User: Which sequence fits this backbone?
């Protein structure tokens, strides 16, 4: 059975002291985590070391992005080796905001996935459609393309080292989450695409999360769906009581 993953994406928020305080509050609120639930927090690059110092071994540190090169003249970028050095074990790859604002392509996402796997960093690969694509009923084709291109060069046996987050772009930060049944349908589609790229057994090992206006009130409705294995949390991860509340709701299920 797949474990549950709850990952908090802090995005471009918080001062050093605010990040330290949030990490400490999450630590104090999440003691005695069960083995079948993993928790990850993903602060800004500048907060990684400080936040890692506050986290217990039961809560993982993740980054919000990574570059595919190991070193060199790539101003402003950060490598897998550097992330590992500050204690990261996870990294978000291909978030819709990077795809939209920074023009990150599927080819770039694929390169980052391969770099993560090479260095034993676990990528959380984001896929999803925008509002216009949804209205034109292009969700299936858009998500299928993103999954196929992200994992086309991943070797058999490595796909189980990857997590995927389905994040309908129209739901992110809007307060309007997708219907759990609709999210489940897309997650099932993603798993079917994986079965076409790899074996059925391997595809069943991949955790697929939902992301988009997740909060303590709606998280249960998502993880109760058969194929949804957790959540990538945005705004609610910036409030310790809400993020802790999300995890505790999952623990009750």
Assistant:
């Amino acid at each position: 059975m797949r474990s549950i993953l709850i990952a908090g994406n802090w995005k471009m928020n918080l001062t050093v002291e605010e990040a330290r305080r949030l990490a400490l509050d999450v630590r104090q609120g999440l003691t005695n985590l069960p083995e079948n639930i993993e928790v990850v927090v993903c602060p800004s690059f500048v907060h990684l070391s400080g936040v890692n110092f506050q986290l217990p071994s039961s809560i993982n540190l993740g980054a919000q992005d990574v570059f595919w090169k190991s070193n060199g003249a790539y101003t402003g970028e950060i490598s897998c080796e550097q992330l590992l050095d500050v204690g990261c074990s996870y990294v978000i790859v291909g978030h819709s905001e990077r795809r939209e604002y920074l023009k990150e392509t599927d080819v770039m996402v694929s390169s980052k996935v391969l770099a993560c796997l090479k260095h034993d960093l676990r990528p959380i690969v984001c896929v999803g459609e925008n509002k216009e694509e949804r209205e034109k009923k292009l969700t299936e084709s858009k998500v299928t393309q993103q999954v196929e291109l992200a994992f086309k060069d991943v070797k058999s046996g490595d796909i189980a080292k990857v997590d995927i987050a389905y994040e309908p772009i129209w739901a992110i930060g809007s307060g309007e989450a997708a219907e759990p049944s609709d999210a489940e349908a897309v997650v099932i589609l993603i798993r079917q695409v994986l079965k076409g790229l790899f074996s059925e057994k391997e595809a069943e090992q991949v955790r697929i999360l939902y992301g988009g206006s997740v909060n303590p009130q709606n998280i249960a409705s998502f993880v109760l769906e058969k194929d949804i294995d957790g959540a990538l949390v945005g705004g609610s991860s910036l409030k310790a009581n809400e993020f802790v509340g999300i995890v505790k709701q999952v623990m009750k299920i």
Remarks:
- The chain has eleven helices and eight strands.
- The chain has a mean pLDDT of 95.
- The chain has one domain: 4-252.
- The first strand starts at residue 4 and ends at 9.
